[in-house]
Structure formats: structure tokens, C-alpha cells
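Q: What residues go here?
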């Protein structure tokens, strides 16, 4: 990829001259540039969509374009526009990148960044990239990064615009949105069938998502009160290999009851609140119908393929339940069909593995919100496309979703930058990566708990060898 780099002083002058002027397109507006701590900060809007750009005074020619993760439509708007995995007010990765000459940019996306933005974010992110090239300079290298569903956005950006990107970093990715929503439907279907029998709980074509969400949440809460309900929750989670490791700072649970309780927290918070009825209604609005289906799905076979089948069988034995009866109930329950046009539309967001650029992925092994099984699936897509040597997949031995320190993220970026700059991968063994992480100061070793305490806590380096289970409902 050939680019021309403007010198840093020229780039800084161009940004200053264009303050308040029309940027790329008539719909772009700009707030005044502020200069502090060796950076030029720019916040504005393009077609009404907020964006943020940070440029160091001594720009090295590389731009990092960040795509944020899924933000539920029923949640309040999160403050600020993040440029890295950690919240903007806590991200020391930003300071490290600027101190080392890297520029950063991101769009908030439409609707204040909430809801299913995989398609609209393509336009928003490319608009920011166009703005940057017109108003700052054409990068020598552009790297796409993303967190959670934002990683799917980043992958789509690179696969659809291969001439504009030179590298890719994904963090806690849900690469295959179609598989993610199919899995959510599987779990909600099992909750309704096994934990709320006889209740009319709409799961698709929703007119009252709040009522469906409340009914599903209540069913999960009731199930936690009995061994029988807990066994059925274990089955629900096993249909997507949802880990029983919800704690941000705690160790992986070894007690079966504790494991199921943490698994239930994932089910309730990720697949009922996060990707449940509210998300489904938003998705259907974007696609003009329901894209998900469980027609023809054999849940007995799905359990047999699950990495958690032994835990489910043990929970059923302990509860005195016959697993075959519950699998028969799932088999007999009326299925949910997708709307063909919406399903075809959703399939367009499934990555091909053809990014064709150096790629680093990082995932916590206990992530139950975006299961690490998606990493195994995506790696297979990249290898199938013939790019085996272009990807390095890294794992961190922690629970929770996106529970990375600044040091974890920086070391992953350093790995990618070295591959882009030299054409060779550095060492990526866990011991080497952990040594690199440990070299950072304590304030770079913090993980943010965004589900319980909303506080930072120190976590030691934890890169580890790991092979995820197979993804149970891949789109291809």
C-alpha cells in the first residue's frame, strides 16, 4: 500500500487552518482544535455523527482507526468517544500511542453509537478516514482496531477496503454477528421452553421488548433458586459454550454451583439484557425483519458438540432430572423461522477471512459475552483464504468480556506494528508477551470492571496458551 506522508509541521498547520471550515463533504463541521500535552485534539461531526481525532506533534505516519463495541439501545449514552479498549478517561493506551507518534481516530456512529451499527459504521468510519486524509495527511499506514462488535466492524472495513488498511487488531471480537444473534435466539428459546413453560414470550417481531426482557429475566432468576433450575441454566449456557466465569477480578470458579451462577449472570446480562429483546427489535428495524432462525436445529446434537456437555450432565444428575426429557421438550417446541430478506442481509456481515493484512487478535478465555470460540472460527476462515502467516491469535487467562489492561493492548499493538514495519512477526509466546506486559508501570496494569463495581483493579500479566472450543452455530 503506497502512501505519501506529509511532514508533521505541515499536518499540524493544515489542521489549524481548517478549524471551523467545512471538512470532507458539506455535512462536516469542526469544533476548535485544542493543543495540549504534545497533541492536537479535534472533535467534530460528519453528517451529524460525532468523531474524534488525536494527532501527536511528531506524527510517525501511522493512523489507528478504532471501532467501539455494541452499546444497547436502552442504555444511556456513554460519555466521550473512545479510541482504545478502556474508557476514554482511563485509557493510558491513548497516551502511549501519542507519545510514540501514532495518530488515532474514531466515529461515535449514528444514534449516539447505540444498537446494531455494523453497516452504518462502515460509512461513518470511512468518512472519518477521508476527513483525516484531507485535513491532516495521508497515512503511511492505517491500522483498523475494534472491540467486541466493533471488531466485526473493523474486519468488515478491511475486507471491503483492502487498499486503505495495512493492519488489523481485534479485541474480544464477535466476528460473526449472524452467529451471535442465532446463539442468543437459541438460549432465549431454551429459557422460554424449559424455564417459563406455557408463557407467551415473543422472541422475534417484537412490539413490547421490555415485557419479553422482563419475562426472560424473571425466568432466569427463578431458576437460580433450585437445583433443577440451575441444571437447566447450565444447559442453556452450553448451547453457546458460555463460560461460567463472570467475575472481572475473581479466579475461574471451581465449585459447580458457583460456576452456574456466574454462567447465569452471562445469560441474564449478555443474552437477555444486552443481546435480548431490545437488541432484537433494533436489529429487525435495521434489517427490515428477523434474520435469525432455529429451524432444523437439533439441540441434543448441539449439546453433544458443546465443550460443557459433561458439566450439564453432572448438573442434571445432581438435580435428579432426566436430561433426555428436556432435550425432547426443546425438540418438540415450535421453531422460529427467519425472514428470508433479513437473513440474506445479515449474511453480508459475515467475514470472509480475506482481510489480507497482518492481523492480531486478543481474547479473554473466560469471555461469555463474545465467546472465544469465535476466534477459532475466524482463524479457520483466514487460513482457508490462504493467509495463515498473516494472523497471530493471543489469549489472556481472565474472565469477563474485554478485560484487558492498557499494557495488554499496547503489547498487542506493538506486535502488530513490528510485523507491519519489518515484515516479520516478533515472538508471541505467552512468556514473552507477559514479560513485555510486566515491563509497564502499575498504572498500565489495571482492568476496568464495567459490570459490577465500575472501578479499576490491578491484574497481573496473564497471556496463556489456549485453544477455544468450536463455534456451535457458525454462519459458514
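A:
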Amino acid at each position: 500500500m503506497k502512501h505519501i506522508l506529509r511532514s508533521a509541521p505541515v499536518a499540524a498547520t493544515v489542521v489549524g487552518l481548517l478549524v471551523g471550515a467545512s471538512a470532507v463533504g458539506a455535512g462536516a463541521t469542526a469544533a476548535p482544535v485544542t493543543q495540549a500535552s504534545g497533541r492536537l485534539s479535534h472533535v467534530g461531526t460528519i453528517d451529524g455523527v460525532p468523531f474524534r481525532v488525536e494527532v501527536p506533534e511528531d506524527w510517525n505516519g501511522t493512523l489507528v482507526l478504532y471501532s467501539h463495541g455494541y452499546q444497547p439501545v436502552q442504555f444511556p449514552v456513554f460519555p466521550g468517544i473512545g479510541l482504545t479498549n478502556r474508557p476514554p478517561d482511563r485509557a493510558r493506551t491513548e497516551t502511549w500511542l501519542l507519545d510514540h507518534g501514532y495518530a488515532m481516530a474514531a466515529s461515535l456512529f449514528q444514534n449516539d453509537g447505540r444498537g446494531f451499527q455494523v453497516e452504518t459504521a462502515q460509512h461513518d468510519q470511512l468518512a472519518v478516514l477521508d476527513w483525516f486524509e484531507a485535513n491532516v495527511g495521508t497515512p503511511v499506514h492505517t491500522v483498523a482496531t475494534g472491540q467486541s462488535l466493533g471488531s466485526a466492524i473493523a474486519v468488515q472495513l478491511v475486507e471491503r477496503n483492502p487498499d486503505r488498511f495495512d493492519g488489523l487488531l481485534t479485541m474480544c471480537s464477535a466476528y460473526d454477528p449472524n452467529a451471535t444473534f442465532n446463539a442468543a435466539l437459541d438460549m432465549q428459546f431454551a429459557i422460554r421452553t424449559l424455564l417459563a413453560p406455557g408463557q407467551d414470550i415473543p422472541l422475534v417481531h417484537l412490539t413490547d421488548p421490555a415485557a419479553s426482557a422482563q419475562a426472560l429475566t424473571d425466568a432466569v432468576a427463578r431458576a437460580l433458586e433450585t437445583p433443577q433450575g440451575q441444571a437447566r441454566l447450565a444447559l442453556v449456557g452450553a448451547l453457546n459454550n458460555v463460560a461460567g466465569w463472570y467475575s472481572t477480578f475473581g479466579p475461574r470458579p471451581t465449585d459447580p454451583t458457583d460456576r452456574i451462577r456466574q454462567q447465569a449472570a452471562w445469560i441474564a446480562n449478555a443474552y437477555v439484557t444486552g443481546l435480548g429483546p431490545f437488541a432484537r427489535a433494533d436489529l429487525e428495524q435495521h434489517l427490515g425483519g428477523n434474520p435469525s432462525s432455529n429451524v432444523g436445529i437439533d439441540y441434543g446434537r448441539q449439546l453433544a458438540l458443546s465443550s460443557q456437555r459433561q458439566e450439564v450432565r453432572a448438573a442434571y444428575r445432581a438435580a435428579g432430572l432426566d436430561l433426555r426429557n428436556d432435550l425432547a421438550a426443546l425438540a418438540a417446541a415450535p421453531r422460529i423461522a427467519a425472514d428470508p430478506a433479513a437473513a440474506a442481509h445479515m449474511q453480508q456481515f459475515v467475514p470472509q477471512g480475506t482481510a489480507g493484512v497482518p492481523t492480531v487478535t486478543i481474547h479473554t478465555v473466560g469471555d461469555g459475552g463474545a465467546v472465544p470460540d469465535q476466534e477459532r472460527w475466524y482463524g479457520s476462515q483466514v487460513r482457508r483464504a490462504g493467509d495463515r502467516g498473516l494472523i497471530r491469535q493471543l489469549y489472556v487467562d481472565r474472565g469477563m468480556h474485554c478485560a484487558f489492561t492498557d499494557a495488554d493492548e499496547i503489547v498487542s499493538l506493538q506486535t502488530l506494528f513490528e510485523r507491519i514495519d519489518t515484515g516479520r512477526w516478533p515472538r508471541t509466546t505467552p512468556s514473552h508477551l507477559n514479560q513485555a506486559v510486566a515491563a509497564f508501570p502499575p498504572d498500565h496494569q489495571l482492568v476496568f470492571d464495567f459490570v459490577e463495581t465500575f472501578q479499576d483493579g490491578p491484574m497481573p500479566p496473564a497471556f496463556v496458551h489456549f485453544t477455544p472450543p468450536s463455534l456451535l452455530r457458525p454462519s459458514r
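A: Context that may help when evaluating the design: Residues 8-175+351-458 form a domain with the Rossmann fold fold (CATH 3.40.50.1820). The first strand starts at residue 28 and ends at 30.
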